[in-house]
Fold this protein.
Amino acid sequence: MPLPFTHLISTKQLSRPDAEAILRVADDMEKIRKSGKGDLLHGKILAALFYEPSTRTRMSFETAMIRLGGDVLTAEGIQFSSLYKGETIEDTMQMVSQYADIIAMRHPAQGSADLAIKTSKVPFINAGDGPGQHPTQALLDLYTIQKECGKIDDLKIAMVGDLRYGRTVHSLSFLLGLFKNVKFTLVAPKELTMPEKVTSFFDEKGIKYDQVDDIREGMDCDVMYMTRVQQERFTDKSEYERLKLKYVLEAKLLKGKKVAVMHPLPRVGEIKEDVDALPNAAYFRQAGNGVPIRMALLAMLLKKA
Ligand code: CP
């Protein structure tokens, strides 16, 4: 099934059939990944433009393109690009469209992806726009939930931490809202609660959610989605220091529970290392799932899947 759009900037573009088609293609991509390398995207070039730090998203996009037989151009850091000299995102896209067949861009400004698609002549993928959206992360999260829980409908999801600035929880909320009877517990201090753009979506769709500020009230769930308090989004560093370790998940809190623990990573103390050895710890498997999902997206947007 072809995707009904050229560029992916937000999970709000996706229908449930679109999301399910991407997960099915990702399953096929796992086979190519295990066999080493395919040639589906031979002759195609991905421009991976990362103007904000990244380990997983950049490297899994690059791995995905290489596994499909394509090539990669990488740009890291605004200071090493002509954006630093004042070139606009729109002009940058005009240029890069002439060098590459598909573009993935991370940028610190919310709305940068909307600017990029104004002038991109090739498929564009938002790899994170400030506190806005991170749709490919949400798709790999969805894939992980399906693999860890065996289903997506009828699940209880706790989202914990920085729900205000955490773009991954925004994108994942819109995506999970497409599924049946998914209930949310939103665990955050009052300074970092889920933004109105997400809660009004829940209200419009009749999706059930509770907002609490004690992690123990979120423990009755199938998936606990932990997040990092985002230092880079705070102007007041003392506020960050006060909030950064409000929620710390440790092994003793998970005793006897079947909950799958997820985190987009990096973690900076909010999941203790003693959780890593538990079967609940899904976060490193989750990071690995970024490769087949991004292989699927590259192939589908280039109309080769
Ligand atoms: N999850 C995620 O976006 O990680 P990176 O910032 O390392 O890409």
Observations:
- Residues 54-57, 128, 137, 264-265 surround phosphoric acid mono(formamide)ester (CB under 6 Å).
